[in-house]
Write a structure and sequence with these properties.
Blueprint lengths: L2 H12 L5 E9 L2 E10 L4 E7 L6 E8 L13 E6 L29
Antiparallel strand pairs: 1-2, 2-3, 3-4, 4-5
């Protein structure tokens, strides 16, 4: 995504009620970024997006427990889930796949494909 669109997306996200800068040292998959998050009181978690402060690039997301979640046996501060995003420039796409990805509607033998 071009830098101007990323900037617009982050500015829009900052206007969502409850969104705040959470951590300027959030680490995902060995990379450190800025966490921007919003607490979901009903779940007892904070959903965060992690941004590389040098480039503005989205590097991932995580969900963190903001209170003890006794039913799951998780103390406050536990990272519940995370996803790291890596972007590389390559010479070509890997072999295989379909124009529709995994869910190719023509794979089920439907007529008209």
């Amino acid at each position: 995504m071009p830098a101007d669109l990323r900037a617009a997306m982050y500015q829009a996200a900052a206007m969502i009620p409850g969104v705040e800068f959470v951590d300027d040292q959030a680490t995902l998959d060995g990379r450190t970024g800025v966490a921007i998050g919003r607490v979901e009181d009903a779940w007892g978690t904070r959903m965060e997006i992690i941004i590389d402060p040098a480039t503005g690039e989205f590097i991932g997301e995580r969900e963190v427990a903001v209170r003890d979640l006794a039913d799951e046996g998780l103390p406050a501060g536990t990272i519940i889930s995370w996803t790291a995003v890596v972007i590389d420039v390559v010479d070509g796409a890997p072999a295989g796949g379909t124009p529709y990805g995994k869910m190719d509607p023509c794979d089920d033998g439907a007529s008209g494909c």
